[in-house]
Amino acid sequence: MQTKNLAIMFTDIKGFTARTSSDSREGVARLLKEHDRLLVPVFRHFGGVIIKTIGDAFLVTFESPTDSVLCGLTIQEVLRQHNARVVEKDRIDVRVAINVGEVQLKEDDVLGEPVNLAARLEGITEAGEVYFTESVYLSMKRQEVPTAEIGERVFKGIPYPVRVYRVLLDPQSDQAKELTRQVELTEKGPVIHVRRSLDGDGYQRVIKLGVFVLLALFVAGAATWMWVRPFKIRREARLKAVEQIQTFIKGGVPEYDVWDTLRNILAENPADPEIPFQAGEILGKRFVPGAVFWLYEESIRRGGHTSDPRVFAAAARVFERTLPDEKEAQETHQAVKTYFPKKRQEWAGEALEGENAYALLNARAILQESNDPRLDDPARVKKLNVCLNKLLSEGDFTPEYKEKIRSYLQNPS
């Protein structure tokens, strides 16, 4: 049986079962017809192949992981425009879930664990959202779509935890406004001007085009080569550096050897912001969040990635795993205060509503700077103590660390 590496997308309509039981057969047929009119052109624009439809659900495959995510993002924009024009009962709210992996091709179907995982992921995806797995995140062109990590999830029938991400698009951002300009919903259906990615089949077309471009550069002479050469050298250095880091990780060498090599690599490439950022991406699964954030911060110091949501997400992971007086947390607080002051305050407000003891303590440390009155709320103080006691009872800590945690217990007023 033939196999192929593909991106797998599942979509379905929120509340479709309830609508079928309360609407007439004609009403359901109209809903599905309108649903197909809105979504099918988007699938086709991004090179999606519709494998099957089951009622309100689509199973679609893509050669390009990036195109699959761009397709999901565009679907939500098309539906946003549609829902703004119709009454409440005619709204169509769709959830999109994507996974990537090697699947088996059987006649007009696709089979395998990547398909099963995509279907399971759809089950937890919120309406109006695009969720995707870490395998998509690692294989897509991340600079083309803003993303946020949701966290690890365990799915029935999948023997390992899966890290899940979502498309993150602020409606007021320039990127969201540009998407609105590139997607127009007309009476005949959506008109889409969003460019497809250059991975998958598109990448091969660009390679062919690149051959002609290189021939033209060759004919143009040595002057052109001297202009291009510095960029080629920098790219080769970057690829070599990333390859060195990956080799060390795959070899399972001790942590101190990795860091010694990494420091040498950074010293040899002192101006390139991509090398520390890529190192953070590669080392993210092996080392503590503080080390990863340090690499992201080094990238920022070199002039790159201040707007990438993954940078603050790494800082948030530090706040969710360390006490405020630990060196790792203190250094992260200082960096985030410098580069992301507004986001830091927003995160603190959100974390204050959660139940992660570490996050609660770090949120309080941030909000104490402005004497936030919420910190004096007896109910919040009580919740903090409950979370700290739970952490003490469930964690395997040294006596010294337990005493440090106890020092944060509050006296309710």
Describe it for me?
- The chain is an alpha+beta fold.
- The strands form two sheets. Strands 1, 2, 3, 4, 5, 6, 7 and 8 form an eight-stranded mixed sheet that branches. A two-stranded antiparallel ribbon has the order 9-10.
- Strand 7 and strand 8 form a beta hairpin.
- Helix 10 runs antiparallel to helix 11 and helix 13 packs across helix 14.
Blueprint of the fold:
Blueprint: E1 3-13, H1 16-22, H2 25-45, E2 49-54, E3 57-62, H3 65-83, E4 94-106, E5 109-111, H4 113-124, E6 130-133, H5 134-139, E7 147-153, E8 162-167, H6 174-182, E9 183-186, E10 189-192, H7 201-220, H8 222-250, H9 255-268, H10 274-283, H11 289-301, H12 309-319, H13 327-339, H14 341-351, H15 357-367, H16 378-394, H17 399-406
Parallel strand pairs: 4-6
Antiparallel strand pairs: 1-3, 1-4, 2-3, 4-5, 6-8, 7-8, 9-10
Helix pairs in contact: 2-3, 8-9, 8-10, 10-11, 11-12, 11-13, 12-13, 13-14, 14-15, 15-16
